[in-house]
Design brief:
heterodimer; A: Rossmann fold; 2 domains; six-stranded mixed sheet; five-stranded antiparallel sheet; 25% helix; B: 218 residues; mainly alpha; MetI-like fold; 77% helix; 0% strand
Amino acid sequence: MIQARLRKTFPPRPDSAGFSLDVEFQAGAGVTVLFGPSGSGKTLTLDSIAGFVRPEEGRILLDDQILFDGAARVHLAPQARNCGYVFQNYALFPHMTLRGNLMFAAERRPRLERHRRVNDLIERFRLQDFAGRRPHEVSGGQRQRCSIARALIGEPKLLLLDEPAQGLDAPLRAELYEILRQVRAEFKTPVLLITHDLEECFELGDEMLILREGKIVQSGTPKKILDQPASLEVARLLGRFNLIPAEIRALDPGRNTSRILIGEHELDGPYFPGHFKGDRVTVCVRPEQLKASGRNGRFGRNQIPAELNRAVEKPEGMRLEFAGGIKVDLSRADYERESGNRDWVIEFPADALRVL
Amino acid sequence: MGIDWFPLWLSLRVAVISTAIALALGLWIAYLLANRTFRGKEAVDAAVTLPLVLPPTVLGYYLLVLIGRASPVGKAWETVFGSPLVFTWKAAVIAALLHSLPLLVKSARAALESVDRTYEKAARNLGASEWKLFWRVTLPLARRSIFAATALAFARSLGDFGVTLMVAGNIPGRTQTAAVAIYDAYESGNNTLALGLVLVISFAALAILTVANRVGAR
């Protein structure tokens, strides 16, 4: 269990805007994903925990060990922290073999144990055939496995990964996810992982922290965050939503209904706690929650007419882009059936509507 | 009568010893310059580099003031070892060191600083002490440039003339290095000897630089 509260400020300089990191979170067993755009403070957070950076204030507690305490002036050296760190480019020592890299990491363990531990990890990470080679002589997947094995040799109480999937092609990415699932199952080490890929959050993350400009703007399971982004900025960061300006026309808590105005069309929605009639809001709805179909004469309840700009082939199906920037995902079969239409309507299912 | 090989042999001995000292001392200074922040850091760097730009006579003068028989260092040396330091081959080593040290410090600092800091972060993260980190990670990763710099320093100390002449003198069979012997031979009209030594020194330097470039560029 890692508990961190930290603050670090970089004052503005002539050549760079200032930045301040101010985060508080805890992460237990399983994988916690730090998600955010570049420059949001993800790596700084990881480096503070690993001890490469000294925060100005706060406290970092790993299990019951204090790694950093601003008030008590405790700042353990990176060597004393026992946090495994997997670097973005793996940082395997190029002048050592894979086994040499693992031995280097194992040297703080008792002498008799070292070889056993190294051999054990070589086997578990399927590196037997490459252990005698140097990092540049093995494949990307082998380097990746070796760097994770190296980070785990000292039985760290926490594993930190800085964008491990950055720049990997699809098969390697799948392999990485498999290894990390293996790590989660076999090593019971809490994992803190940086990414800016939402797929990865779902693939790996038990918990997710969203960082923006040095602050945590939302935390929770990936599914919960995708279902209910806490704010417009979170929805924008996740990048998976139609964000449509609207106005609340009526609210009825008793019947759990509302009326909202999009453009010149009124739609039914659920009751929105915390909002008032007349509020200008943003409707937040995912493309796959909307339905699009051909317009036959009049349009029905919760449907608005729309002009199709283009249809884009996606791996999962078709994405229709309508005038006004509204996107709707449709299965290929549905699209085939409707593609003869010239006029379209978009249906907004009442229970899928969220406002921010 | 064949060529007197003593000056060459002496030059070689002086160069080997001064390069060894320069390597040890230079690595240490370069490490401090590359890894520590302290006041006057760039002043230290400038002071170490100074011998590269000062005239040999100025350096020789300073050295005589510093280690001459009347100086505290010179007196201390004489008390401990029973003979003066100046006008011995040991003074020639110091003279050569004056030029090989700056070359080494400059290149070694650049080489150490060019090692990707991620490797150092990784090593610390894996529990390596600063000592282990330096010897097992940073130095091996910088070894090519440092080897090239060492070769350059060696070539440079093989041929020092001005400072050596001032502090070690020109005593044939005792302190007369190859560079000094060439001057001596030329002055006394012994062109064969001068040419012989010139060619040997030139080829040695050329060979060393070729090796240094090959290793450094790889």
